[in-house]
Amino acid sequence: MGEMLKADDRGIEAAALALRSGLLVAFPTETVYGLGANARDEQAVRRIFAAKGRPSWHPLIVHLPSLQELPGWAADIPQQAWDLAEVFWPGPLTLVLKKAGGVSAHITGGQGTVALRIPNHAVALRLLRAFERGIAAPSANKFGHISPTRAEHVAEDFADEVAIILDGGPCRVGLESTIVDLSGSAATLLRPGAIDRASLARVLGAPPRDSQGEQTTRVPGMIERHYAPHKPTRLCSYKNLEQIACSMKAEYGVLSLQKRPPCFTGVWIELSSEPERYAKDLYAALRELDHTRAAEILIEEVPVAATWEAIRDRLRRASTQSNN
Known about the structure:
Blueprint: E1 3-6, H1 9-20, E2 25-27, E3 34-38, H2 42-52, E4 61-63, H3 79-88, E5 93-98, H4 105-108, E6 113-117, H5 122-131, E7 135-136, H6 151-157, E8 164-167, E9 178-181, E10 188-191, H7 197-204, E11 209-210, E12 233-236, H8 238-247, E13 252-256, E14 267-270, H9 275-290, E15 296-300, H10 309-318, E16 321-323
Parallel strand pairs: 1-8, 2-8, 4-6, 5-9, 10-11, 12-15, 12-16, 13-14, 13-15
Antiparallel strand pairs: 2-3, 3-7, 4-7, 5-6, 9-10
Helix pairs in contact: 1-5
């Protein structure tokens, strides 16, 4: 395992030095922990793919230290990008734009676009400013596995591939960033996140359109099976969840909005009915259930509402099946 360091001045400088040396550094953002490499060093970027087991066609997000860096990474930047950046950066919003010359195809997955954001986390910003350039950083977990929201989650997934893990405590948001594609004729929502459609619409003047499946730009987190526990995972209505869990035909781990019923004797985690708190705690709860002796994980379906859209997206991708 890489060296676990406090996110103090010493830790930040050691992490920046490791990045300059072409090594991988895990660091906290407001969304999830990122696995970072010097975005201008192709060999270092390749190390991200090797460490994660990530397919080469799956693009990365480049984290920037300031808005002034944007023209060095993107070309033909539309006014909508500047407008969104002014309101939401630093923050959990990734913008997909036409790439500037010199941006590595390893970062873009061979596409003509690049995904960019400025994170809203004190440690991430201090690291970016100490490093003084872009950091390519997908989530710091094995490809397809549950994203990490604590430093110890990073350590669970990696042995010696990461030089340094900066411990900045639990992530505040807990879900990956909202991704908006501005490389085409109209703003397109590719991945829901903490910044919802209504918030985007207030800046854009209209809601972003929905993605069109295979016709859209490839971006992180869009494959069907993602953010997933190792154990089989099933979405259920509460009625079916209680019935299945209490049948005792198998050992289950349960994630629910309700209190544990008396009939159930296994591991039952109750999460908040408030979506922001639920999102913050979701991945840690899934990892906890993945470490139990349960044969299968059951997740109660969450409300169908705009405030739960990003959570519903992650739960659907984490589940192997649905049982309504």
